[in-house]
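User: I'm curious whether this sequence folds into something compact or stays loose and floppy. Could you predict its structure so I can see for myself?
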Amino acid sequence: MRDGIEGKIVLITGGSTGLGAETARHLAANGARIAVAARRKDKLDAVVAAIAAAGGEARAYLLDVTDKHQVASVVAAVVADFGGIDVIVNNAGLMPIRPMVEVNTDEWDAMIDVNLKGVLYGIAAVLPRFVAQDSGHIINVSSVAGVKVFAPGGTVYSGTKFAVRAISEGLRQEVDGRIRVTSIEPGAVDSELKFSTTGTAADNVLDFYKIAIPANSVARAIAYAIEQPDDVDINEIVLRPTAQEF
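Assistant: Here's the prediction. I'll summarize afterward.
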């Protein structure tokens, strides 16, 4: 694995906890140079410190993915600090589960802003650079809810994740083999995502997540996509707990 990852400069959004942080640690252990970006500086600093203690290289960047100017600035800072960028993992996400009949448009807006626009802003920030260097890898974290509609309760969440999957596939076709594009579609993974639900469905969500697999399971899937030779593009990876039916 290390041969395909070592030395690559990887930016991970939502990199302060859970899936993002675990992916950062896993890739760093295999020789990647890591940039983690998120809104909570204390959590980011902890991830960077853990990577450094293990002999890896990492830097932290404050980022709200709903602000396209911040996303562009962070990518520019990563390029300045590391001398380039090879991979972006668009991982930041929200999952407030609530039946649509409850009509919480604030939650709908938040999911569209983070899950969908955040991915688009990440793509926008790296794509011109990747085209110019004729290489690069865009990894978008979707969900099994982007493969099968999660309803009742997850309809809008599924809508954002279906969109991420569609954008990933359309982008793959548009870049014509010069840039690799991967959509990662996890099922229940142990992370803070399950705490996004604060309404009537909260107990059901927490109960469902009792079967969750460790975040490192997704980190290994992301590493598998990155480690492939340049002429191999892993387009989609769907992974679930063996006990998960949905």
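Summary: The longest strand covers residues 180-186. Residues 2-237 form a domain with the Rossmann fold fold (CATH 3.40.50.720).
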